[in-house]
Amino acid sequence: MAQNDMNNTLLKVKDLKKHYPIKKGILGGEIGAIKAVDGVSFEVKRGETFSIVGESGCGKTTTGMCLNNLIEPTSGEIYFNDKQVSFRQKKDFQEVRKNMQVIFQDPYSSLNPKHSIQRIISEPLVINKMGTKSEIEDRVQSLIRLVGLDSYHLNRYPHELSGGQKQRVGIARALALNPDLIICDEPVSALDVSIQSQILNLFEELQEKFNLTYIFISHDLSVVEHISDRVAVMYLGKIVEQGTREEIFNDPKHPYTQALLSSVPVAKPKSKNNRTRIVLEGDPPSPQNPPSGCHFHERCPVKIEACKKAYPDMREVNNLHKVACHLVSENLSITTQ
Amino acid sequence: MIKFIIRRLLIAIPTILLTITIIFFGLRILPGDPAVAMLGPEASPEAVEALREQMGLNEPLIQQYLAFLMDIVQGDFGDSLISGQSVSTQLFTNFPNTLLLAFTSIFFGCLIGIPLGIVSARKRDTVPDSSIRIVALLGISVPPFLFGIFMILIFSLMFPIFPSMGTGEGFWGQLYHLLLPSITLGLILSAALIRFTRSSMLDEINREYIRTARAKGVPEKLVIYKHVLRNSLIPVVTMIGLYITSLLSGAVLIETIFTRPGLGTLAIDAITNRDFPVLQGCLVLFTLVVQIVNLLVDISYSFIDPKIRPS
Amino acid sequence: MEPTVKKANYYFPEKEKRKRKSPEWEAFKKNKLGVASLVILIIFCLIAIFAPMLMPYDPLAQDMLNRLAGPSADHWLGVDPNGRDILSRIILGSRTSLIVGFGAVLVSSLIGFGIGMIAGYKGGRLDDIVMRFLDSIMSIPLLLFGVMVVVALNSSMLTLIIAIGIGLVPGCARVARGSTMELKEKEFIKSAISMGASDIRILLTHILPNITGALLVISTLHMTTVIMVEASLSFLGVGIQPPTPTWGNMIQDGFNFVRDQPGIAIYPGIALIIVSVSFNVLGDAIRDAVDPHIKKQRN
Asked: Is C267 in CB contact (< 8 Å) with chain B?
């Protein structure tokens, strides 16, 4: 769908970091930091769906929240529409924020329980003074239909709607400002599976209609496989592999990606290209004190000596696929099976 | 552990300093000349001026403040304007009386409040529970001085069991005189304790681990006394600590009602006589006590409850 | 722009703008004790407002012949040591209690909720400093704080309102701060931030409406505190000065004659207890209505 403007970069993130200081001692001195996001770089092209996947605690949500400064990043550069966003200047990022709306995970807490749906959807328009009262009302009417609800829903309150309906309201609210980019933070994880697919279809429809760009944050690989154009896999605050959906899902290079993919249940268990189940041992290490070298080496089934010493650089496998693994760098074949 | 105590101490010091500062400036910056206030409106300007000089009121405020702080650190609160006695001496002769009243009240308060709170929680929504709750509600709604009057009326006048005033002679006499005031104050404290124990117990009873214990077949008595009670008493201990402020206010009133010597009567006399140094001393001592009790509660808390112990 | 899934079911059962039934009010209405206390308090407010019409005698007029007389057909609640009708004085005294009560609660709410919400929302150093300062005020017993201010200034009604009001600020601020901090993490707040809403807008339209219940509870419970402190100050002789009747100074008058005529102290005491119990019951009832956590416990 986005083939024709493939080269049009909407968002560029360079070496984004978010470190939470750990304070201790009588005077509260800093003794270290939790590196929730530790040097993440990626590019998102206009009109595509870029997914960030990883286990809980890997920093994928923090990354998303850093993009529009809901969490202030420690360092890093963000370019939106080829313009660098400065997080120190409030005016600067307020402007960017309008073009970068967020849809949250929990539809139950993402809508103000004391406001009617009408008020919730019109809120962004009122804040940014987009038109007169009647213009706003018209816009809200068209938005509510756009997400598959009816105008009588506008007089309702969030507690009177179902989870799926609430998430639709959240989408309508995010669309109100005509943003270029929508950051979806696990937008379907809190919903029933049957509702999930409805919402995902809605996302795709809207993308086609308005040439939207999504950053889709999720831990659910089957959802990601369904919706993404490109995928980045995060582990302990770093991106370990990124590429097109086909590359990642059909030819994963990083042992961690392979392990993740192998955990997804398959529709036809007896088919030939069934992935062998790789069971990782242990828990992800603490981001406060990550292992030396490659952060993954303690749990990696195919580690080599180099893995313990240095963190691997990001290498291009081909122009669609990048991976940070010593085995790839040294041209060793990675087969965890 | 020691680190935690040191840290807590370091937090307490600025709070105490800040409170003392508020008291100092509160008594001084407010409009009205303390010298005039003390001597009355008819005093001659010379007398006012002399008193201002004597009180150091003509010095710059900051200098007065620093002198005041230095004096406090040395335990010197100045001299009473009425009796000429040193304020610290007066504080130290009166303080033990108030402390004794406070401690015995806490004793009676816990003795009555905690068991009734437990009963109320265990028999939730029954007649005993409702009656206990109504009594507790009355208890927290009656001002201490009014309750004191009721107690005197009943136990000293209608049924002359207890004396209504004074401290009494000798150990037994003193104890005898202490009984009614401390029961009065203790009952007021127990009303708050009943409510707090009850809600704390109910909080705990609904926890998953209690359901698990019951499901495992642990006898109900054991569930209540070993699991529920132990965990729900922790907030109760804190509450007693926090209640010390109200308890001191209550003690002031109770002391007045029962004409017992103590910090309360000292403070009230100081107010009626416009005896600023004594009033200032009382206020500073009050806040010190409150802060120290809070400190002790926090520290004891960290012994009882491993959750808040710092890593 | 047609909706994607659309059947021809164009019925609009709720097309007209409907007034939202507040679930809290519905829950409150079911609490009989709460409603009863509300009714009692409204009656007392009416008594205070229409006091001059309701008083059988001039509350300041002295009838020394009937001094210390017990209840009779003429003087329903008897006559005080200065020969004044007790019932009339109780009726006029309700004004003092309620005006000081509402006034001080208003002062503490305006200042305390504002401070608490800002401190809770902003967090960080500002929060630390503000809370440390409020903790310091809190460690001075409210009664003595009142005494301190009243002695330094004067014992007018306005002084009392401000002094007690300021003394209650820390309590208000704590509740507002706690509720705000809890709410701040909700995603609808983050969503409002990402839309570009100003801090003031977030505090007023997103946080305040969601914490009014908790704030109402603390304000209602504070009414009892104020009324009790005001009466205590009057009793100690530093409150509103005689001959203006207040329940506190009436009780003090009566205390000196408690052996002869206990009613003089007891009747205003009963009025005081009724009002303060009612505010406590009302506060509890509001808490039950707005706090679903407690509601769950009841079932």
From this structure: no
